[in-house]
Amino acid sequence: MSTLYLYRHIQTSQVLVSLRQGMKNKVLQQQSIKQRPPRLRKDHWVPMLAISGFDKAETAQALHDSILTRSQQKQNSKINATISGQPARLREPLEREQIQQTLEALQEALTHTLPKRSTEPLRFHWENKALSERLQWPEHVQHGDLQLVRGRIPVQASSS
């Protein structure tokens, strides 16, 4: 069973999507070069959401790719529509705020990439359950709490 992880940066609210529990520097390429480049400090990136219950690794990869594509499109349209004329010191914090747009991209990706599931539902394990209440999720999604040990996902919890 595959698991998809969403990590958030505790200072900048940037979001990274990963198919691995441990992050590598390669995942940082998801962020735009125009923004202040994030560093991979393990004490700054915390798990925001772990999605489990995929029947195949290809399904998790398709959802991963769809989230990234939709999130980058939302980021570009947000920059062009609302904050492009602002000075850089005001614009940069708004550009880095990615939690809401990533959740919207996840919701859209679920409805388009995985429209209906006849097998097990997907299980969303949230760091903060209030984030799950921001949007309307499909019926094939179950929500639960993300159990962290010292700020990290325990190995046995990621396989359930």
UniProtKB/TrEMBL annotation:
It is found in: Mitochondrion. One of its GO terms (molecular function) is DNA strand exchange activity. This is Large ribosomal subunit protein mL67. It comes from Bifiguratus adelaidae. InterPro entries: Ribosomal_mL67. Belongs to the mitochondrion-specific ribosomal protein mL67 family. Keywords: Mitochondrion, Ribonucleoprotein, Ribosomal protein, Transcription, Transcription regulation. Signal peptide: none annotated. Pfam families: Mhr1. The keyword Transcription regulation applies. The keyword Ribonucleoprotein applies. One of its GO terms (cellular component) is ribosome.
